[in-house]
Amino acid sequence: MAWDEWEQLKGEALERQQSSTHMRLNQIPSDPGGNSQGDLRVSQSDLAAIGDAAYELHQAFDHYSDHARISSMKAAGGLKSEGYEIGSALDHVAEHWVDQVQSLLDATAHISNHLDYTKGAHAGDEVYIAGTISSIATLDKGFDERKGN
């Protein structure tokens, strides 16, 4: 590529950048009405679905990874008994497989447990907030009655 061609490509890229709209990940677009709240929301059902998926992944991976480990160890034993050095290498891989599986199982269990905890904590927060707001409404009603409204 010649220098002139490079400069031309850079200029075209700059023109495209200046004439087109680009996504900005560091901010939300400003609302003409002055409301600049984001639209990222999560519901209890969303959290429950993610937690359930993590639990199902945990259960399935635990089951199937054990099949892989057993098959690998059998194959390693067979290869070693036949005098193949690759049997020892496969045995080494199978041992490390167990460590990797445990790490993934721990991570999926952590996700599931954390989301269960989060769901419970937010439910408790909702009860607290509802109680607080209810108390304020009762207080307001008392003030209104005292003022004669």
Give an account of the 3D structure:
With 149 residues, the chain is mainly α. It has one domain. Helices cover 79% and strands 0% of the residues. It has 3 helices and no strands. The termini are far apart. The model has no long low-confidence stretch (mean pLDDT 78).
Summary keywords:
149 residues; mainly alpha
List the helices and strands and how they pair.
Elements: H1 3-19, H2 44-81, H3 86-147
Helix pairs in contact: 2-3
Helix content: over 70%
Q: What is the tally of beta strands?
A: 0
Structural class: mainly alpha
Total domain count: 1
Q: β content, as a range?
A: under 5%
Largest sheet: none
Average pLDDT score: 78
| Secondary-structure element series | HHH
Radius of gyration: 30 Å
Enumerate the spans where pLDDT stays under 50 for 5 or more consecutive residues. none
The span between the termini is 83 Å
**What is the general shape?**
flat
